[in-house]
Specification:
heterodimer, A: alpha/beta, Rossmann fold, Helicase, Ruva Protein, domain 3, five-stranded parallel sheet, two-stranded parallel sheet, 21 helices, elongated, B: alpha/beta, Zinc Finger, Delta Prime, domain 3, 15 helices, 5 strands, 58% helix, globular
Chain lengths: 420, 323
């Protein structure tokens, strides 16, 4: 029988919940106050990103304290009347059978109305008159619609657990399911979920159900696929949508590194903007985006980042006037990144030779690379005797000599003279 | 067997040995006579003797132990103004022993410093002015902020005159017993245009080939030392092949370490040398100038320059269409 692991392995006690210990403590302290009468705040408002354990904490707490839990969610909040209908539930502390009651209003983000009308007003009314603890749950407690409501509530923030805490939970689930998985795999899943425990458990189930062992190779392909798919989607929107800001939205939604995306756009623009005027305009937009990147770099003022986005998304989109989409053109990996990778060794070598030249020649290493090394190459390739003298004078090591001589044979001739 | 780079071996040691920049040398000599110098800015194109003049000035001022009194920093190599400030602090803390009561700090490629760094430098200059005099060396004094400029004595270096260039190379070839016929000498001047560092490096590389240095030898050395061909890149772009033009640009920057400012200067020169209609030259000058400015603000020279190539392609295709 198929059962969702998020339900199957849901913590039944507060002690099993990962992370947020402070928030949980605050919550249970407040619920315990009710033993001694009605506290000043009759409701607690739990807020925070999805999948961090807000609802689960309330359920586990009710379970730990053997309270009767009455749960309502978005579908119950559609109208003010619908909300008012469960007012009666909150009007008494205990149940007929002597158990105390806890009312949970989950998914408050979906409620209608404001403080003056609709569901929110009805909720405020219920809280004001509540005789038992009411817990509200939402992603964003600072939604303006909740501004009055907040005054009646004890605010408790739930934060994302750490990756290690998520891993700990995943490991427990694996243990119960009899799956062997090394920490690297679990860490990968935790990272990929953005520390959303619910989504991490779902991913784990999708990857591991029916297996005895989960290896890194089983999951690593996901990373590359995710990233490429996301980037391709953004590129498609930027290059071919007619709405400039749709492109910007695509980028906001994508959560890819801005510099990386810039490189992808920069690489692929010429293939997709064939008309010369369109291309010039698209490249001009990238040039302006780059100007703002430079300004961020020199002023460290990251609030300028939005302008980088404006130009690299909307600016490029709007450049298309005459280019016709010419069939399917694949997106190519940024050549510049590949080249920088390939030439890393070369550039490091040049830079260390540049430093040696700098010591002797009253010139910066950067300029030495441009203005001295090209001549040294000619000398080292053609005149072993002069090269040996210069190698000694500049204090070059064997690798540097070989680099300048352009090969082992000539380098050998030079080092032979050096030794004699 | 002993070899050095000839640029160092034949670098003048004293102001009296300098072959060019007569007026500048005269003024610097008067500083030596007075045993005092102000803060200075030496501005001018590469290979015209700015660093040499600064070193000679220190030599003549301090005599034998001149190196003790001199510190050379390079703004392109020293990361950040903090390094400069800390170094100056330590260096200037100890007073000079001897007749001259200050030390000299040469800050090369000062025009590569950001505005903020220059502001900080200005305060440092003021604080230590008693014990330390600065000589700022740069290609363009316009890139030095006004408050620093107003505190410095300006010196403008220009490209060497033909006679000075020839005299200097002649004295080297005599000492190195190299054969340099007139056609070779002409070729070197034609290519290097009075940039003496480049001329001497070209001469030494040509001499390493072990044959008479005729014009052909010079051109082959220059061709190999400068695999960067801006003119071809422009032609490729204007004929419509943007991808190829961008690839060449990338090669210049990544493989050969050419500075964006050098490339754009070259593009500017080539556009005006070309056979393009005059009104297009001036249109392109506007674009080149704009990109030149954006490069000073932007993060990537390649991105800026390829935006320029895209504009040149647009212009090229439009000219072909006969508009």
């Amino acid at each position: 029988m198929y059962a969702s692991w998020t339900v199957k392995h849901k913590p039944s006690s507060l002690s099993e919940i990962v992370g947020n210990s402070e928030a949980i403590q605050k919550l249970s302290k407040w619920v315990n106050l009710w033993e001694k009468g009605i506290p000043k705040k009759r409701a607690a408002f739990l807020y925070g990103p999805p999948g961090v354990g807000k609802t689960v904490s309330v359920e586990a707490l009710a379970n730990d304290l053997s309270m009767e839990l009455v749960e309502r969610n978005a579908s119950d909040y559609r109208t003010a009347e619908a909300v008012e209908r469960f007012a009666g539930l909150a009007s008494q502390y205990g149940t007929l059978y002597g158990r105390s009651r806890l009312v949970l209003l989950d998914e408050m983000d979906g409620i209608t109305g404001t403080a003056d009308r609709g569901g929110v007003r009805a909720a405020i009314k219920i809280i004001k008159e509540a005789k038992c603890p009411i817990v509200l749950v939402a992603n964003n407690a600072y939604d303006p619609r909740f501004s009055t409501l907040r005054k009646y509530c004890l605010l408790i923030e739930f934060k994302k657990p750490t990756v290690l805490q998520v891993v700990k939970h995943l490991r427990k689930v694996c243990g119960r399911e009899g799956i062997m998985a090394d920490d690297r795999v679990l860490k990968f899943i935790a990272d990929r979920s953005g520390r959303d425990v619910r989504s991490a458990v779902n991913d784990l189930q999708a990857l591991a159900q029916g297996k005895k062992r989960l290896a890194y190779e089983d999951v690593s392909w996901l990373a590359e696929r995710d990233r490429k798919e996301v980037i391709f989607n953004v590129l498609r929107t930027i290059f071919y949508s007619s709405d400039a800001w749709e492109a910007k939205k695509a980028l906001d939604a994508a959560d890819v590194d801005a510099d990386m995306l810039f490189e992808w756009i920069y690489e692929n623009v010429p293939r997709h903007f064939t008309d010369s005027r369109d291309l010039a305009r698209a490249m001009d937009a990238l040039s302006l985006a780059d100007v703002y990147r430079g300004r961020i770099r020199s002023t460290r003022n990251w609030s300028l980042l939005k302008y980088v986005y404006d130009f690299m998304t909307g600016g490029v989109t709007m450049a298309r006037e005459r280019s016709k989409p010419g069939g399917w053109i694949p997106f190519r990996f940024p050549e510049r990144i590949r080249i920088m990778g390939q030439t890393k060794g070369l550039r490091a070598m040049q830079s260390s030779i540049g430093m040696r030249i700098r010591r002797r020649c009253h010139i910066s290493s950067v300029r030495a690379i441009r203005e001295v090394i090209p001549y040294l190459r000619i000398i080292f390739e053609n005149n072993a005797e002069m090269a040996a003298g210069l190698a000694k004078w500049l204090d070059l090591d064997e690798d540097m000599v070989e680099h300048l001589a352009g090969g082992k044979r000539q380098a050998g001739a030079i080092t032979k003279r050096l030794a004699s | 067997m002993s070899f050095e780079m000839w640029t160092e071996k034949y670098r003048p040691q004293s102001l009296h040995e300098m072959v060019n920049q007569k007026e500048i040398v005269e003024r610097l000599n008067s500083f030596v006579g007075a045993q005092n110098i102000p803060h200075c800015i030496f501005a001018g194109p590469p290979g015209t003797g700015k660093t040499t003049a600064a070193l000679c000035l220190a030599h003549d001022l301090f005599g034998d132990g001149w190196r003790e009194h001199l510190l050379e920093l390079n703004a392109s190599d020293e990361r950040g103004i903090n390094v400069v400030r800390e170094t100056v602090k330590t260096f200037a803390r100890t007073r000079s022993i001897g007749e001259v009561p200050f030390k000299i700090m040469i800050l090369d490629e000062a025009d590569n410093m950001t505005g903020d760094a220059q502001q900080a430098l200005r305060r440092t200059m003021e604080r230590f002015t008693e014990t330390c005099r600065f000589i700022l060396i740069c290609n363009y004094s316009g890139k030095i902020i006004e408050p620093i400029q107003s505190r410095c004595a300006p010196f403008r270096f220009s490209y060497l005159r033909r006679e000075d260039h020839d005299d200097y190379l002649q004295s080297i070839i005599e000492k190195e017993s190299v054969k340099l016929p007139d056609e070779g000498l002409n070729a070197i001047f034609e290519v290097c245009r009075g940039d003496l560092r480049r001329a001497v490096n070209t001469l030494q590389a040509a001499a390493s080939l072990g044959r008479e240095i005729d014009a052909e030898t010079v051109y082959s050395v220059v061709g190999r030392a400068n695999p960067v061909n801006v003119q071809e890149m422009i032609t490729v772009a204007m004929k419509g092949d943007f991808m190829e033009a961008r690839k060449r640009l990338r090669d210049m920057i990544v493989r050969y370490g050419v500075a964006g400012s050098d490339i754009i200067r070259q593009i500017h020169i080539e556009v005006f040398r070309s056979g393009l209609p005059d009104r297009w030259k001036i249109k392109l000058a506007d674009v080149i100038g704009e990109i030149d400015f954006r490069m000073t603000q932007g993060a990537s020279e390649e991105v800026q320059l390829s935006a320029l190539l895209a504009r040149m392609r647009e212009a090229g295709l439009e000219i072909q269409r006969g508009s």
